[in-house]
């Protein structure tokens, strides 16, 4: 009553053993594909972690620099500006990790929150009444009167260019893990598991436990079994090319490190621009939001504090040169895995599964 290992001579197998063999080949195939995938998956997971740690480190550094700008140059607003600064960098971090947000909305929300503080503490430091309604009016007015000039838009443009590639790379790496996990658990067809039993275990039914499959026979069976997986070859090659493009974009002129380190300078220029145009801004705001209560003379001139340009940018870029090294290492490894899915049958037939240096092997029917 054998279904797979039918043979003319007597056999020591039963139908139940054939069923056990089918379960065994399914388990073994999953394990062997997992073993092949392990190094590739380990590499991608390791770099997801490394890139995310590097992004977070860069963001923290840039956030600290931005906070120190307010503490050293704009002390009247430092305490209240801490929350908007924190929100800005949280939003940028979420954007890189793939959240449904945009760089533009994060940056403009920050400047919306900043304008009431700059207006009431730096441009008109005599204001005592800063009600919720008045603050909201200032936030809305910011969008119309553009107190920060071109600097807010410039910051959006620069960050969008540099963070886009980081966001895409982060998403692409996660997609790679998804693809690998899916192929690991691809179900074997009934025909495939029968072919694998015939190749690996039918010789045992004849007492030939040391004979292994012939190389060509193994390749034919494996290619048939993994036809759906090897069809990924073209898309996998394209995926590797996309990763290469994204890592090159990250290291190109819109460099992430430099863009983040420049946030502080852009915000400083934006605040200086607003202060220098204080009288015109006040006239417009008074028309739109009304005149708030004053506490005496305007102290505008005392509040424009020139910021000493910290010689941190060069150190910052050098300290994160390791990010460039990680990119290069990663893409070099991934390029070597271009043929991963095209050669999966060959790799599974390599090693202990087949008989390489022997004059005899199993061809599915007999020892040859």
From TrEMBL:
Protein name as annotated: GPC5 protein
Alphabetically ordered keywords of this record: Cell membrane, Glycoprotein, GPI-anchor, Heparan sulfate, Lipoprotein, Membrane, Proteoglycan, Signal
Membrane topology: Lipid-anchor; GPI-anchor
Gene symbol of the encoding locus: Gpc5
Pfam families: Glypican
Function noted in UniProt: Cell surface proteoglycan.
Superkingdom, natural source: Eukaryota
Cellular localisation: Cell membrane
Keyword Transcription assigned: no
UniProt source species: Brachypteracias leptosomus (short-legged ground-roller)
């Amino acid at each position: 009553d054998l279904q797979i290992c039918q043979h003319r001579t007597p056999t020591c197998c039963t139908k139940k053993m054939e069923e056990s063999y089918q379960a065994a080949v399914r388990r073994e195939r999953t394990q062997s594909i997992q073993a092949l995938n392990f190094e590739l998956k380990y590499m991608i997971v390791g770099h997801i972690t490394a890139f995310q740690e590097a992004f977070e480190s860069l963001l923290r550094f840039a956030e600290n620099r931005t906070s120190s700008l307010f503490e050293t140059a704009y002390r009247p607003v430092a305490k209240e500006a801490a929350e908007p600064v924190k929100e800005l960098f949280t939003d940028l971090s979420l954007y890189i990790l793939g959240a449904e947000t945009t760089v533009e909305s994060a940056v403009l929300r920050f400047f919306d929150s900043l304008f009431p503080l700059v207006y009431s503490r730096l441009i008109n430091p005599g204001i005592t009444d800063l009600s919720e309604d008045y603050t909201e009016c200032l936030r809305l007015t910011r969008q119309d009167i553009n107190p920060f000039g071109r600097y807010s838009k410039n910051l959006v443009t620069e960050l969008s260019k540099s963070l886009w590639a980081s966001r895409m790379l982060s998403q692409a790496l996660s997609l790679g893990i998804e693809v690998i996990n899916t192929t690991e658990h691809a179900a074997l067809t009934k025909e495939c598991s029968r072919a694998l039993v015939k190749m690996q275990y039918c010789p045992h039914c004849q007492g030939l436990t040391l004979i292994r499959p012939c190389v060509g026979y193994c390749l034919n069976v494996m290619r048939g079994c993994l036809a759906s997986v090897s069809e990924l070859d073209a898309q996998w090659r394209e995926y590797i090319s996309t990763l290469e493009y994204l890592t090159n974009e990250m290291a190109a002129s819109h460099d992430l490190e430099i863009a983040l380190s420049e946030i502080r300078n852009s915000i400083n220029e934006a605040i200086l621009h607003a202060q220098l145009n204080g009288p015109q801004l006040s006239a417009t705001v008074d028309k739109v939001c009304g005149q708030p209560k004053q506490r005496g003379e305007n102290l505008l001139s005392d509040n424009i504090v020139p910021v000493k340009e910290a010689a941190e940018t060069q150190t910052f870029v050098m300290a994160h040169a390791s990010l460039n090294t990680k990119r290069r290492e990663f893409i070099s490894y991934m390029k070597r895995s271009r043929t991963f899915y095209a050669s999966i049958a060959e790799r599974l037939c390599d090693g202990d599964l087949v008989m390489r240096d022997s004059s005899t092997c199993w061809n599915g029917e007999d020892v040859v």
